[in-house]
């Protein structure tokens, strides 16, 4: 199974640069071709006059400015004949250089735009400003912040996973940003259990996850592995099963102290990670599951590389408590005095939080096979999701007892990947509620594009809502008709009763 990559949305500044560049080129060509245009002006003018007379009421032409040619949200105004002539003469060159900017198509499209009802988005239960910022900026959304149980929202965005009642209250046209049972991927103990089952059945295909044990259930297995190690005793990372952001994590190479630990996940430490600038790092990659059955997975092409703040050393008794060497969690390292925050989008390879693309570029410059690495990362993502897919799919069928084509749920997961010195990727964990905090410009642009592309992919519209309303109206009409029929039947029955009662009375009077 292949993962489809979706492109990140271009930023506003890049669009303005393209438009400005295109405007300057068009203006310069107009000046160079002024003499040739003057010779054929009469012929072109007559043709354009005939065209304008036919479409005089509804045609609108772009007014060309020095720095801006066309804005998607600005109104079109009439232009001079010279503008029309220059556009006609340079149309072929425009289409070759800028195939995405066809003026004729854009004008015709704008002419027949109809006012559509806005999509209602409920953001009452999200704290992230970037989510609010994106939804408020996109003109197709009507954002609500006062949640009502009977709300008619199309889309709801919630920061935490949902309860059973939340899914039961959903209407057929509504979407929500979490799957029921997504903890099967997001909680460390459940993910480890799912991958352990798959490893037992497919040992060669599920060796991308470090050896992991769940306490207290698998303490005896951990003990057996530890004492069978002939070489130096391995180090382990001990993680609370339900915590995040590096809380409660510590390193150890003894297991006696772990015997009485409950609700912990023990993971074998990767001693020889791949280093950049002498620092240990991991990758945060964003994955969208659009539908769970059939399974539709999308990998966002950009991500984050999170670095430790102290030069790497293999763990020993002297440094095992210095977590800034061994852990790459951003929430932990940002408090260290040596932490450097990235302040420039153009220089995304500086600091202790960098872009995923800058890491790939660094690997490629060193001669590593980046395509092979990406293929292995995609396989890790797909195989991990497959391990939990049956459970999530069954739960969704329970709550979505309909088959109307509406994909009720979607979810963005944060996959944490670490690369060893042989460029072999390993899955550390999966986050089903990844942070959308934007502490730096790099954070802002990556997460903004991620949310925009997600909203485009899930394709929320009012069609399902209109079908739902029509179905309700149809059911009401049926109920009304049934009531009328019952009323008529009752009237007929009553009249028949009265008729027979009168007959009985007449009969009794006659034969007394």
How does this structure look, described?
- Keywords: ATP-binding, Ligase, Nucleotide-binding.
- The protein is of the alpha/beta class and about 500 residues long.
- The protein folds into 3 domains: about 5-110, no CATH class; about 185-280 and about 300-405 and about 415-430, D-amino Acid Aminotransferase, Chain A, domain 1 (2-Layer Sandwich); about 475-510.
- It contains 17 helices and 15 strands.
- The chain has helices at about 10-30, 35-40, 40-55, 80-90, 90-95, 105-110, 130-135, 165-170, 185, 190-200, 220-230, 325, 330-335, 355-365, 370-400, 440-460, 465-510; strands spanning about 5, 120-125, 140-145, 155-160, 175, 210-215, 235-240, 250, 265-270, 275, 280-290, 295-305, 355, 410-420, 425-430.
- Helix 3 (about 40-55) packs across helix 4 and helix 7 crosses helix 16.
- The protein is elongated, with a radius of gyration of 32 Å.
* Helical segment count: 17
Tally of DSSP β-strands: 15
Q: Give the low-pLDDT segments.
A: 6-81, 94-114
How much is the radius of gyration in Å? 32 Å
| Class per helix and strand makeup | alpha/beta
As for the CATH topology of the largest domain, it is: D-amino Acid Aminotransferase, Chain A, domain 1
CATH architecture of the largest domain: 2-Layer Sandwich
CATH C-level name of the largest domain: Alpha Beta
The total number of structural domains is 3
How is the biggest beta sheet arranged? 7 strands, mixed
Q: Give the overall shape, derived from the CA principal axes.
A: elongated
Classify the helix fraction into a percent range: 40-55%
What percentage of amino acids are in beta strands? 15-25%
What separation lies between the terminal Cα atoms?
Answer: 93 Å
Q: What is the average of the pLDDT values?
A: 76
């Amino acid at each position: 199974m292949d993962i489809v990559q979706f492109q990140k949305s271009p930023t506003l500044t890049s669009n303005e640069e393209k438009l400005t560049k295109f405007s300057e080129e068009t203006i310069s060509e107009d000046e160079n071709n002024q003499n040739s245009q003057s010779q054929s002006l009469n012929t072109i003018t007559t043709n354009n006059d005939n065209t304008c007379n036919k479409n005089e009421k509804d045609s609108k032409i772009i007014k060309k400015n020095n720095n801006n040619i066309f804005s998607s949200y600005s109104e079109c105004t009439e232009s001079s004949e010279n503008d029309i002539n220059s556009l006609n003469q340079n149309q072929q060159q425009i289409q070759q250089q800028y195939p995405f900017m066809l003026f004729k198509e854009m004008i015709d499209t704008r002419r027949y735009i109809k006012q559509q009802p806005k999509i209602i988005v409920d953001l009452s239960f999200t704290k992230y400003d970037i989510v609010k910022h994106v939804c408020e900026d996109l003109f197709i959304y009507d954002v609500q912040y006062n949640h009502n149980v009977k709300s008619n929202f199309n889309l709801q965005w919630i920061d935490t996973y949902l309860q059973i009642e939340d899914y039961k209250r959903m209407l057929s046209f509504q979407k929500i940003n979490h799957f029921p049972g997504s903890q099967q991927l997001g909680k460390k103990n459940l993910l480890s259990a799912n991958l352990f089952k798959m490893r037992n059945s497919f040992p060669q295909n599920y060796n991308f996850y470090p050896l992991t044990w769940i306490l207290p259930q698998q303490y005896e297995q951990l003990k057996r592995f530890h004492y069978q190690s002939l070489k130096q005793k391995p180090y382990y990372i001990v993680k609370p099963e339900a915590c995040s952001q590096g809380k409660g994590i510590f390193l150890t190479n003894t297991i006696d102290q772990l015997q009485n630990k409950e609700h912990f996940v023990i993971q074998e430490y990767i001693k020889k990670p791949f280093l950049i600038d002498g620092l240990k790092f991991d990758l945060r990659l964003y994955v969208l599951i659009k539908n769970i059955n059939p399974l539709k997975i999308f990998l966002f092409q950009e991500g984050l590389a999170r670095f430790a703040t102290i030069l790497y050393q293999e763990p020993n008794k002297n440094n095992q408590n210095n977590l800034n060497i061994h852990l790459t969690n951003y929430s932990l390292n940002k408090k260290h005095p040596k932490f450097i925050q990235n302040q420039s989008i153009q220089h995304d390879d500086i600091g202790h939080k960098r872009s995923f693309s800058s890491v790939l570029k660094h690997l490629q410059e060193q001669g590593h096979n980046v395509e092979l690495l990406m293929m292995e990362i995609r396989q890790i993502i797909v195989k991990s999701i497959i391990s939990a897919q049956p459970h999530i799919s069954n739960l969704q069928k329970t709550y979505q007892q309909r088959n109307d084509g509406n994909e009720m749920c979607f979810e963005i997961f944060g996959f944490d990947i670490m690369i060893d010195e042989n460029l072999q990727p390993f899955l550390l964990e999966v986050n089903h509620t990844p942070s959308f905090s934007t502490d730096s410009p790099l954070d802002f642009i990556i997460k903004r594009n991620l949310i925009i592309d997600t909203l485009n992919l899930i394709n929320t519209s009012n069609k399902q809502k209109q079908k739902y309303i029509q179905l309700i109206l149809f059911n009401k009409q049926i109920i009304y008709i049934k009531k009328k029929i019952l009323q008529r039947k009752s009237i007929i029955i009553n009249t028949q009763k009265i008729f027979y009662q009168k007959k009985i009375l007449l009969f009794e009077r006659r034969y007394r």
